Amino acid sequence: MENKQVYRLQGLSCANCAATFEKNVKAIATVKDAEVNFGAAKLTVIGEASIEELEKAGAFDGITVIPETERKEQKAEPFWKKKTNVVALISALFLLAGYIATYTIGERHIATIFLFIASIIIGGYHLLKTGINNLVRLQFDMNTLMTIAVIGAACIGEWKEGAVVVFLFAISEALERYSMDTARRSLQRLIDIAPKKATVLRDGKEHEVDVEDVVVGDTVLVKPGQKIAMDGIVIRGESSVNEAAITGESMPVAKTVGDEVYAGTMNGEGALEVQVTKRVEDTTIAKIIHLVEEAQAERAPTQQFVDRFARYYTPTIMLIALFVAIVPPLWLGGEWLTWVYRGLTVLVVGCPCALVISTPVAIVTAIGQAARQGVLIKGGVYLEEIGKISTMVFDKTGTLTTGTPEVTVIHPFGDLDEKEVLKIAAAIEKQSEHPLASAILRKAEASQISFDDLQVSEFRAMAGKGAAARVNGTMYYIGKPSLFSSTLSISENVRAQITHAQKQGNTVMLLGDETKVLGMIAVSDQLRENAAFVLETLRNLGITQTIMLTGDHEATARAVASSLPLTDIRAELLPEEKWTAIQTLQQQSGRIAMVGDGVNDAPALAAANIGIAMGDIGTDVALETADVVLMGDDLGKLPYVIRLGRKTMRIIQQNIAIAFLLKVLALVLIVPGWLTLWMAIFADMGATLLVLLNSLRLLRLDGISKSKK
């Protein structure tokens, strides 16, 4: 079995540094493989490596490595206290002193030159060390470009320009670190949600222990106003719990004996005793954090393109700089100092900082912000797909409807009465997990009908049709009318009852044996209150087709959908037929998003370009099957998902355009000599800053305000 270790990283400053750090870790002899997740600031190592070895591999960027198992609180260090920023400030003081000396004793005075050299060495030590190492290994990145530019400036006597380049580059790096830290903060807030201690009841006494030491089956005491430390089931007490940490909704949910509660949620006014059902690493919030971290590591297609482009971009810039530096003096009679200076300016302008971070900073910000709103997006690729969706397909039960159907009619045919029909049906459906089965069981419980005296065997579910079982020796069937129509003759009276119930929006199930139909059970599922509003909002957002797929009868489907602004309805579909319908729609309409509960429509969710699951908190199936999960089972978050996807795509496109256009403009200004070295680095810093600030606009997108409850 492979030895896998996961670490959290502090001090990881840029995407380029992440790639270099990953390469350095892979070079450790005892490491088989390594992966750095820049978005989540995490390192995964396959093999053996000590903390000292890992930190040595990241020494060029001042990276601190913390084992993930250590639940060490990561306090945000103030911007002005970070070592790199303090060094930049000291460098700036020497630079300022150099400028003062320039105007008092002259730019060429030894003291002035010394001040600029001190500024370069202090502020550019790590830059120059990394850049020179890269040059020796023929590795070309932004550190290489900057190092050549600074050394080149020194060689032609432009000490002041070299010092300004170092200082402005340090400021640019500091701003990038600050912005990435801001983008990661939404994930860090998730990590910090769950308490690190829990009050466990043992032998009637309270013991405060680390959550890692709590085991399944322990009883945890949650006092009023405390956060719940572990997932579990309430075994004593009543309270209301604010589940906003997971669902994004602040409305408290009433909890009593038998209800599930989740780590990281806030207890209200009552005390609860909770029996732990999951270890700390398996809690719902832990799964969410894991999914978000994986999503932030996933490279979107645009980012993959930018990364591939950057590999060729830096060497190309170096060739252009070389061309600018030597061609005019050699063949056009230009002055060497002038054109070497301009060649160095090309190197500075060519720094790919803004381009490299244009996509990841937007993706990390968007995914982290979505998680805070109760929406899990499993990667940048899905964010991009969401932005291109124009057709959205909905499952009916549990998506457009509440998913809690109720029995409205029980109509016996023949020898059985209502009570007997319900009793046999409940005995069979007890083995089933279908939502309609739960409706029958709730009706039996409400009617105080017990079926414990019935012997049930040979149960089998028939996907999309119903179920069968032997009850007290007789084989019974329960399910859609179509289950019986192929084997039994259904009378006109029964058909009339079925049609009447379906036109009223009921889903009809028949109960029968191998010779006849014994009864009809009609079940109705209420539309979600905000279903019509959400569909209308989606249409206003440019979703041109909204289609409902259901296994229900055509008449039932049309009755349910009569008040919804749908463009198409497709009924009487088996799960595999929903999958086929999605493929057909893709051929007709292009990209498709499918919205379902992630259980019986899993094939359709997988077939769609984007699978969106409506997930009750802790629904493992929804977390695993879909590309996007709406926690808290809230359909109202769909418009937010579309807006977020589109806004993220716009921002990424804007970022790339900003980075490219400013580079091109700066390169054009270099040729006539209108751009100095310090102006070039300032232009590069400006592009980086614009890209970062533009990406952080995603933090302002609210997932609640425009979604009616």
Written description of the protein model:
There is one protein chain. By secondary structure, this protein is an alpha+beta fold. Among the domains are: 4-72, Alpha-Beta Plaits (2-Layer Sandwich); 197-282, Calcium-transporting ATPase, cytoplasmic transduction domain A, CATH 2.70.150.10; 373-395 and 529-637, Rossmann fold; 406-524, 3-Layer(aba) Sandwich (Calcium-transporting ATPase, cytoplasmic domain N). The protein is built from 25 helices and 26 strands. The strands form 5 sheets. A 7-stranded mixed β-sheet has the order 14-26-25-24-15-22-23, sandwiched between helices. The chain has a 6-stranded antiparallel β-sheet with strand order 6-5-7-13-8-11, with no helix packed on it. Helix 22 (602-607) links the parallel strand 24 (592-596) and strand 25 (610-615). The longest helix has 33 residues, at 159-191. The radius of gyration is 32 Å and the shape is elongated. The protein starts with a strand and ends in a 14-residue tail after the last helix. Residues 705-709 have low confidence and may be disordered. It is an enzyme of class 7 (translocase). Residues 3-66 form the HMA domain. One of its GO terms (molecular function) is ATP hydrolysis activity.
